[in-house]
Structure formats: structure tokens, C-alpha cells
């Protein structure tokens, strides 16, 4: 039984036949009124009236519908003309057929998601204006395979139907698969579609191109050229009249297409990817497992093809949970296997892009295909030119040309002139290629080159951070080509900031692959950076991984000590205690007297954090006495300054002040600015605890600029918090709030839990002043 209502009795027979066929088409295509609205851009209310015979169906609406469905609409348009009450005709006269221009755009995706700004920008760009004498408007949309270029072009084209009523061409140039279509072949088809008899089509490409320009002159046509190989394939297909517009898509950037407005598609934003996923899977399943959905979308990396495939797999398996799919995608080695549904696969799309790379000729040096595979060995998404040169084992100039070629092929993205990014799924694919192309020894050698270069670069940066960095020799381990150096601390910090995630990725890689001393030395070269910037999570992970990899080696205890300090900064003293005790056992076993002193001081610091002051103080006194008897001034200043903290936390504030003053005198005598700023912070804290507010303010206000001068932003933030405490104790609440707010901003940006405690202070700042000096200590 039909759900349609009866049509009005007095409806014109031709109109009745048209409506009945439109109803049958809607039912056959399973189209809702909302989908009709999206396909044709006529409102669902209009379609409701038309399909119920309440208003005559317009020719424009029927044309938009058949175009949207990509079907031959001659019959419906003929019926529409016969049903038009404004079209005079004699009784019994035959209805003349309606001339239908090319309407070749594929159907729009009903679940197209995101890209709204790009769609509107392209629509505005391609709208006609200025008459036939204006230049042809061309837009070239480029992007990685699977990024959604064709879907975007179709969506834009459908929004331009009314602007180009003489027709819309759609041509798949097959530029990324097999043998691209020749311009001559494409032109022959275009000419036939424009009504040119087959016998009149000239044989030469140039003549066909000229004839195409003649036939399109003055006509309002939209031409979509999908999947272009390069600019040379496109040029002969361009009309000469400004009444036409051309939209080109390609997996390559097309800088050689003169006059074209380039649009490069990036991955979907998280909200857009979620919208696409939910439109396929259903909102209910998304709401049921939000964390698993986020995990799946993370593995898809915002690539629309990957999101659609993952969602389609779930939609076809109602018994699966989203978490089950997330578990399958979690394994990088299986990820591309999982992103495959029927005849659509992410790997296949990537392989066609890779196959389009020109192979290296004999004697021409390395080719982009080999470079792409090697870059899959890089453990992260982003890398710079010098790191790539080390990995590829090529000079900078050659590497730059290879990376530019891969960028033009949309297999890399240029973040800046010397910095590049590879999509995570592409990196998985590239690593598969490396496994195919290279032997295990070749892959290991490439990874050793990469870690060796990062060791060298971190060494070069580390020696610019502090006045007297600890010396860990890198001879025989580091790779010093290509060369890199930094004029000063600012440049070194900027490089380490950019490379922070890459350095940690390289350490993980080196430890997992057993690449030896480079894995142990890179964290040691970065310890001052971690300290200055407060990246304690990275610090802990890098040092703990390296310590495990260096088991039984000379540097094992150094790495354990670094791990302990990082864990203390993360407020994880119980874990720190375990590692400190392991280190002490190793030092005693190996008879390392000087290192034993450091281990003793460190163990005391851990016990202090655990509030076991009676155990901590004797150990610190032992360490102080040992360093006073030696000649290592740097360690002496450090241990005396830190002993001040133990006295402070034990409530022995006079002794804390005395130790701070002793350490400060030593630091100033030996020009140790790094220590001077921290020790002034210790001194200010002790003075505040003793009620000496002016002295506390003096020491703390002196400490902050020194710490900032040497780049120790984490130390400056810690001192700024205590400075706020001192200002409040002085009754200067507004300035205290400003100091706390500054400290909170830094801690929040660093992800430190201390930000929460400072927010509580800010909330209570209007309460009566109280003894608040124990909030924390600079470490």
C-alpha cells in the first residue's frame, strides 16, 4: 500500500504523469525530502508541494534533480515542458522535446561533511561575472589521495548548477592510475557532447582544442577536470571564453597551470571527521562510545577516505563495538589492512600516488621513490631538511630536490622552507615500502644515521644552553653531517622546541632497536633543555627508556639519576625512590665514589619529598661533606643549594637560609648564573618563612630576571609563585594576584598540576592574609 496521498482530481493529465514519475523516481532511489533538498537546493517544502500536486513542478527543479542523480533526464524534462501551464499548445499537439545540455556531474554525497568554508570560497570564485571577455576562471584543487578532492569538486559543481545553465562537463583524466588519458582523446569526447558530428572532429589535438574553444565561446559551461596528471594534460582542455569556469583536481600541485587559483586540501578537522563518521555509523553508536570513536578517528588522521572506510566497516557489522575496531587499528602493522572495504582501500590509493613518481634513471642519483620509502623509517610525522639528509645519506641540495618532488606529489607537506610533514597513514605505507625495497641491514644503517645525527645536533644545541654543560663525549657515535650550529641559547632553544617530539621519537626508536650509545646519550644532551623548559614528562620517559636500554653500561647510573630528578618534578617520589635505590646499589657494586656522592644527595632529596626528613638530612650532610672535600664546585653548589630545601621542608628555616647564603656566595664567586637564580629563590623562600618579608621580596625579585635571562622559564614560574606569596604577606594583594596569574599561565601551558593549586590561591586571594610560604619550592 502506497504512503502517497491522492493527487487532486482536477490536476492536468501531463502534470499528473510528471508527478507520478517523480514519485516513482524518489521511491526507487530511496530519497527523503531532506536528500532532495541537498541534491537540488530547492527546499523540502517546495518538493512536498510539487510531489503532492499542490504546485506545478518547475523545469529548473527537474533539471537540478536529474543532474544531481547523474541520470538521463530527457523524458522528465519533456514531461515537465508538456505540463507547464504557461506553455501554449494546441489540443492534441505533440510536445516538443526539451534541449538538454551536458549534465555530467556525478551524484553528490549525501553525507558530505566539513569543508564548508572551502566550498563557499570556490563557489564564489567560480561564479560567472564580467562577461565572456574576462579570463577563464580556473581553480586547481590538490591534495593527498583520499583527501576528498573529487567529492569537493562535485559538491561545488552542484552549487553552481544555476550559474552554468548551458551544461556541466565532468571528465576523469585518470592522471593517477595507469596511463593518463590524452588531451586529444578527451577533446574528442567533449566535442561529441557539444553536438559535433564524429566525422567533423579533426584528427590533430591542436585543431580539436581550437574547435572546443570555438564551440564553448559565450556559453555558460562548468568544466570539472578530475584527477589531472599535470598542467600539460590540462592546458589543451581549457576554454577560451570567460563565460566558462574550470575546476581541476589533482594529486599533484599544479604550479605550471597559469592563472589557476590553487587550493590545497588538508585533513578534516576533528569535528568534521566526527560528523562524517556519525553520518555513516549513526549518532547512537557514536554517543555510546565517545572515547573509542575518538581513538578510531585518531588512527584515521582526518583522512576522509579512511574515516569513511572505518565507518562503513562498522555500519556493515552491527555486532561490532567501536572499541573492537579501535583495537584492530591500534596495531600499525595491520592498520592499512583494516582500512579496506570491498574495492576501496587506503593502501591502494596510496600505491597509485607512489607509482606515479618518476623512477630514478641510470646514473641520475637517488630517486623520489627510494627517498619516500626511507622517510617511512622516520619515527614521527614531522622532520627537517637536515634530519632527512642524514636519513637519506644525501647532500642537502639533493635532499631538498627530492623533498620538493614529494611535496609536489602531495606525499609530503611543506610546513616551512626546510620543514616537512608526512601524514601518519602515509608514513605507515612508506615504512611498508622500505621493508619491500631495503634489506634489514640497510634499514638499520638508515636508522643509525638518523639517531647519530640527532645526537650530534642535540650536542650542538646543548652546549649553548648553560655555561658549563656536563661533557659526555660523542666521538665515534655521532654523525656530524650535515653540519648544524647555533649562535646562542635562543637559537638552540628554538631548535629544541621545534624538534622536541622528534627527539623523543628518535630516543624511543633507538632504544627499541638497540642502537646503542646514541640512545643513551641523546637524553643526557637534552637534560638542560628539559630542565629549562619544564618538560618533565618527556624528561622522565626519555631517561627511563635510555636507562633500561643502557643496562650494564657505564652511563646507566647517570640515566637513572636523571630519571629520579624527572620523577621528583612530576611529584612521583615513590617511583623515584625505587630508581634511586637501584642506582645506589649499582654505584656501591662498581665502587664509583664520586657518583656515589651524587646518588646519596639524590636519595636524600627523594626521602625529603616523601617527608622522611630524619632519614634525608644525614644523607645530605654526608654528600655536602664529601663535595666540600673535593674539587667539583658545580656539584658542591648544587648539593649545598638543594640541602637548603631539605632544611626548609623539615621546618629548620634558619639553617635553610644559611645554606642558601653559602650556596649563593659560591655560585657568584664562580659565575654560575644558572645556579644563582635558583638559589635566590631558595633564599627568598626561607626569608619568607622566617617572616623577613622585605628580604624575601628582594631575593625573589632578583631571582626571576636571572632565571629568565638564562632561559629557565620553569624555574622562573616556580619562583614567581613564591613571589606572589611574599607580596600577599606584604599586603600587596593585587600584585600577588598578578604574580600568581603569571605562574599559573606557565604551569597550565606546561600541563603541570601546580596550576590547579595556584588557581585556588587566586580564588582565595580576597581572604585575610595567612602564612602561605610553604606552597612549593623552586627545584
TrEMBL record:
Residues 21-76 form the HTH cro/C1-type domain. SUPFAM superfamilies: lambda repressor-like DNA-binding domains, P-loop containing nucleoside triphosphate hydrolases, TPR-like. GO terms for molecular function: ADP binding; DNA binding. It comes from the Bacteria. Gene3D superfamilies: Helical domain of apoptotic protease-activating factors, lambda repressor-like DNA-binding domains, P-loop containing nucleotide triphosphate hydrolases, Tetratricopeptide repeat domain. Signal peptide: none annotated. PANTHER family: HTH-TYPE TRANSCRIPTIONAL REGULATOR RV0890C-RELATED, REGULATOR-RELATED. This is Tetratricopeptide repeat protein.
